[in-house]
Structure formats: structure tokens, C-alpha cells
Design a protein that fits this description.
three-stranded antiparallel beta sheet; 3 helices; 16% helix
Length: 193
Amino acid sequence: MDAIVRGDGEEAVEELLPGEALDGITGLSFRRNGGIVHNPNRTPGHISDDLLPARHLRKESYQLGLEGVEAGILIDTVSSSRGCPFNCRFCSFSRNPWARSGSGRPVHRSPWSMSSPDPGPIVGFTDDLFTFDMDRVDRICDLILARGVRKKYVINARLEIAQRPEVLRKMEEAGFFMLMLGSNPPRTERLPP
């Protein structure tokens, strides 16, 4: 390996392709004269809303499986946002120096809402916290329902979503069936053994 990008790589790859000098690409670590050079970190920006996956170019299908056993169910993944505004003790996202405070694609430009030819009936969102803006989630559900997209969705969420039961009902109607929940309970005193 000659070089790696620390953090998000979209912008760094765009700079690498035309052959920009490695020293000028923030967030890049690379080999030079038997050592490793670490450029300064890239300042995170908003997630690009014009980078959409070209799923038709895939050579392999993504299938649901565990430890090498395929279930025969096609899956897909999408990214609608990056970052999480919370700093939970248990979560590795809070230890990521490149984590964003919550940057989402505009709802109307997002790939999950389109009736695309991708084969996966199950879509896993790679978002750190899909539900960081419940008004946005509400608009996403409206778009999925309006376009008649019939898929099942898996997301990361926090317990605060219970404060918006009307959006939770709409999420269920739109196909959100697996919510991986986290929360950051207040610190309590240890109970005696």
C-alpha cells in the first residue's frame, strides 16, 4: 500500500486522480523515503449530493449472510448522511476525529427514494445516525411512500425517536423494519454487590 486516506475519501480521490502532489492532499498518509508522511487532517464538509453509486457496474451481488453462509437475499447499502451530533460513551463514532455533527443529502437527491433497478429488497443505511433530524426522516418517508418504493430498510437510531410517534408510524409504513437503537443514559452510582 502506497497511500491511505484518513477520514472520508471522496474529495481526496478527486485530487489524486489528476495527479496532484501528495504533499498537498489533506487527510492523506503516504510512504516516502522509507518513512510515512501524515498530511494534516481534512476539515470535514457536507456530504456531496451529486455522488450517487453506479450500481449497474457491480461485478458481484451483495447478499445477506453470516460467516460465509449466504441467505440468498439480495441487499444494498446507501449513504444519506454522515456524522452524529451526540457523544455517547459506548459508541465508536464519538471517537472518530473526522465525524461530522450531522450532514445529510437533500431529500429529493437521495438514492434511497428512487425506484431504481438495484435488486436488493433490503437496504441498509450506512449513516452514523439516520435519525439525527426527524423532520428530514419524515420527508424521506413521504418521498418513499409517494414513489411507491417497496423495500425494507435498516438504520441506526437513538431512543429519542420515541418522542415522534407519528414519524415512527410513517417509518413503519415506508418499510423501516430494523432500527439499531442506542442511547446515552445518564451516569448513575454503582450499586453495591
